[in-house]
Design brief:
203 residues; 2 domains; 10 helices; three-stranded antiparallel sheet; DNA binding; transcription; 3 strands; Arc Repressor Mutant, subunit A; WH-like_DNA-bd_sf; globular; mainly alpha; 66% helix
Length: 203
Amino acid sequence: MSPAHVFEPTYEAIKRRLLNGEWMSGTRVEAGRLAELLGVSLTPVRDSLYRLNGERLVDFTPGDGFHVHRLTEAEFRDLLELHLILLLAALATAPRAAAIPAPADQPYPDRVAGLFLAIAGRASNAEIVASIAAIGDRLHLTRHIDAAILSGVVEELEAIETAVADVAPQAQVRNLLLGYHERRAREAATYARMLADLPARQP
């Protein structure tokens, strides 16, 4: 195992590239090229990729190496359903607690992630927070294409941010969360198709 001072920044650098869509879905991830790019040895890169495989951000096949995970329509629906269940559990645990959303000057995908982590944090349940963070990572790339599929996504986000910051009635926040997830579930096939065809972003 790599020393923490080498492993952690290597892992974070690779993970950020995955979350930002710098490789196409299904692309083979070459550990040697990554090590050269990041200026580290092969060991921390491989250790990072094995961890990311455990997080289902990359897939590992013996004899074929690592590939960027391909999110399917069924998996997207399942993730949305579980994400909603966990958020509603956090909401029910602390219905009158305030949540401070991420700063509005952050990129939209990061604002979404920050908002849901803020809601999760209201429950003071570390397992809910960790689970929502992990699911959010797997959904992160879909948030990059929200606006290409759905209308009014920024206004939708702002409505939820306002509701949780102002400690709106639980039923109101619940309805906003339901609407957010249901809109995306209805377009799951479109999300899966667009992700499969999404060109790599420039690092």
